[in-house]
Each structure stands twice: as structure tokens, then as C-alpha cells.
Amino acid sequence: MSNSPLVNYTQISPNRYSPRNHKIDTITIHCVVGQVSVEALGCIFAPTSRQASSNYGVGYDGRIGMYVEEKDASWCSSSYENDNRAITIEVASDTTHPYAVTDKAYNALIELVADICKRNGIKKLLWKGDKSLIGQTNKQNMTVHRWFENKACPGDYLYNLHGDIANKVNAKLGVNEPAEKNKVTYYVQIGAYSIKANAENQLKLVKAKGFSDAFITKVGNIYKVQTGAFNIKSNADTRLDKVKKAGFKDAFVTTIGGGAVVTQTTSVKKSIEEIAKEVVAGKWGIGTARKTALEKAGYDYNAVQAIVNKILR
To answer: What whole-number distance in Å separates Cα of residue 67 and Cα of residue 54?
Structure first.
């Protein structure tokens, strides 16, 4: 079993399972929560007291480090099973939400994952954002730390780019994807708040109900609590059903920053006050998309916005 030729720095950590007990068929991307170098990351993983490691790391400058050889499994995902089948990669990131990474780090990550897939016979990278598919590598062979423990890792920045990572890696693997002009990712929204603390309280409630992949995304001045990331709307609908059964009756399917995904129309017009409340909840999108949607539905955009402004004061 070989290691990546893209490695710029090596410092093998004592924190590992040797040898791994499963063939490599999964990729797990993490965020470091710090814009560190590969040398600094190696020092973090060096002490046995740290009880943590990863196979590879990507520094803020795009350099790549190796801390656990591919023949061995790292201690990275809070899951013995996942670590034994996955190559784990820590990526230097900001220390605050959404834990963004540099362009150099992101581009290096794509190259590294493509190399790992080529050498280990992973013909196509698959991502559906569905925790229930863990281990079903014919349907999804990317996992995230937040599925195994109550953590934000890999941060919303990288989490929401997993579909893009898969597409870019697959292009390097020579996988011909069907053209999708209007491809979108669907999420289930469980709340929208003008005050961040309120969104954080809702997030705690949602995670306590078992939706560990829930997160907060800020769109304009609104903090939205969402869960899941699905390329197929029917999968998002299934998640929505589970969310509503958990007690979140006002949840709905949406895109990351957009409004509700409409599946049927109604001829009954609502009051401007009702529509304003829906706008605050994020059901009508943002910016020009919101204005267009409201006017198309027959509402006075300025009148609705005036009430929205009063609600958010």
C-alpha cells in the first residue's frame, strides 16, 4: 500500500492503529480550526497524550503533510470503524464559523483526494450528505466527523462544498457526469432568526433530537438553522418527514440561501402580515429573488418589506 507522492512533509504520529483492518474505500475531510502549517499540525499530533492524528494534513499554504501512513489508520473521526476504512485529511481553516479554508488549501485538497482515489481503486467519489448511508460505499463514500460525534467538523464551509469536491475529483478521475444545468442542493430548514443566540439555542434543540449534521448558515442578516445536504429532492423530503416527526412542525425543504421549494400552488392569498412572517422565516428567498417571487405571487414587495423591517427591529 503506497502513500501519496504529493507529500511535502512527514512526521509520523504514534497515535494510530497499525495496520488498518479494512481496505480504503472512504474519504473523511476535517477542519483543523486554525490556519496552521503542516509542520505545526505534525507537532499537534506528535504527543501520545494528544490521542489524535490524521493520515494527511493540508496547510494554509497548500502544502501537504503525512502523519499516519495509508497502511495504518488514524485516530481522527471518533469512530474506530470509519478510521479503519477511511483516509482522513485535516485542512487548515479559520477558527470561527463557517471555518473557511484558503484557495491554496482547497485546491491542494482536491489534488490529494484525487491521488488517493486513483491509487486505492476508488473509481468515483460519491456524496449525498446522508448519515444513514455510512458504510454503503456504493452509494456514498465520503463521511464527516459531525456524523460520529457532536462536533462542527469539518465546518460548514467545507461541509457545503463536499458536492463540489466530489465533482472536481471525479473530473480528475475521468468520470463523465451527465450535464446538469440547474443542479441544486436541498436542505431542511428548521428555523430562521435575526438574533444569532436564538439560532444557536434552536441548533442545540435540533441536535438533541438526533440531527447531528444540523448547522447555522447566515444569509443576509438572518441566521438559518438547517440540516442535511441532498442532491435529490426526494431524499430531502424524507429528512423533512423525520424532522417534523421530531416535533419541528414548521420545517421545510429549501436551498442553502433560498426560500421554500414549492411543490404545489394554492389560489388562496395570505395577508401581508402572514407573508412578512414567512419572509423572516426565510421561505421567500433573499434579495432580487425574494422581490421577484413576491411580485409574481401578487404581493406588494414594498408593503411586505416594511412589515419585515418592523418585525426585525
So the answer is: 6
